[in-house]
Design goal:
alpha/beta, GMP Synthetase, Chain A, domain 3, 5-stranded parallel sheet, 4-stranded mixed sheet, 35% helix, globular, binds S-adenosylmethionine
């Protein structure tokens, strides 16, 4: 992927411009999302059209104009080529997901992590996904493991509605219960003492929900997948910092 973007742009940009291009971009169903540096902003429509011409499955190209931010973890997008429709169908490990790349958080880059967690899950478990988004982790878990039940919690109404839709789309509506609201409140009202496993895929804020995650577990025992961002020079020191910060959050 990294050289692909630069290669296709060589017919329209000179070498110094090509060197300024970011090397990565995301393809989500029919949508391509990329960042374009300020120095190439006036060429964004040409860059978008070139991508459309070279990626058969693409029908819309969006430029990301803000970082992922806010409670809903969304980003601002500007259409630079194709149809202005941020809703698409994305496929992963044989599952299908309706995704709105503007109104909800979604990243195809987490697919390996979703598969890893699904493989760690055992038959018959009750899983609470505290920050479920459009339901990706939960659906991948149900695809690979015969779990008893999954609770999908999310505060973003659009993400919640898509997670309801995606559960039915993948015929998992009997196993997955989707609840819209703040995870703190929903754990107390619906999942307290019920879960064998809790997922906390909100690295920016997971530390504020540790007590709730523990309360969600059966007899306060079970497995919590705690996500956090760490800055480190190497994988080894990332693991050390991560362990230290996790111990600090769990007290
Ligand atoms: C990084 S996204 C994770 C999405 C999903 N797990 C995935 O991988 O596609 C974090 C999600 O947490 C939700 N969220 C943020 N604060 C929340 C809260 N207090 N209670 C419930 N959900 C929350 C956001 O709406 C967002 O969908």
């Amino acid at each position: 992927m990294s050289t692909f973007l630069k290669r296709i742009m060589r017919s329209n940009l000179d070498e110094s411009e090509v060197s300024k291009l970011t090397s990565s971009f995301d393809t989500i169903g029919g949508i391509v999302i990329l960042r374009i540096p300020e120095a190439l902003a006036d060429k964004r429509h040409m860059i978008g059209s070139t991508i459309l011409d070279n990626i058969k499955s693409a029908r819309s190209v969006y430029m990301q104009t803000s970082p992922i931010a806010g409670d809903h973890r969304t980003r601002k997008l500007e259409l630079i080529a194709g149809d202005d429709n941020p809703v698409t169908l994305y496929k992963e490990f044989g599952c299908r997901f309706k995704v709105d790349v503007e109104q909800t958080y979604f990243s195809p880059r987490l697919s390996t992590e979703r598969f890893r967690i699904a493989n760690l899950t055992s038959e018959n478990e009750v899983v609470t996904n505290m920050f479920a988004g459009v339901g990706t982790f939960s659906i991948i878990i149900c695809k690979f493991r015969n779990v008893r039940k999954v609770y999908n919690l999310d505060i973003n109404r659009t993400a919640h509605e898509l997670s309801v839709f995606n559960s039915s789309l993948n015929r998992m509506e009997e196993k997955i219960e989707c609840l819209c609201g703040d995870a703190k409140e929903l754990v107390n009202s619906h999942t307290c003492g019920k879960s064998d496993r809790v997922l906390m895929p909100l690295p920016e804020k997971a530390r504020y929900f540790v007590k709730d995650a523990v309360n969600s577990l059966k007899d306060r025992h079970g497995i919590i997948h705690y996500f956090l961002h760490v800055r480190a020079d190497s994988k080894k020191s990332a693991l050390e910092i991560g362990r230290f910060e996790t111990e600090d959050s769990f007290g």
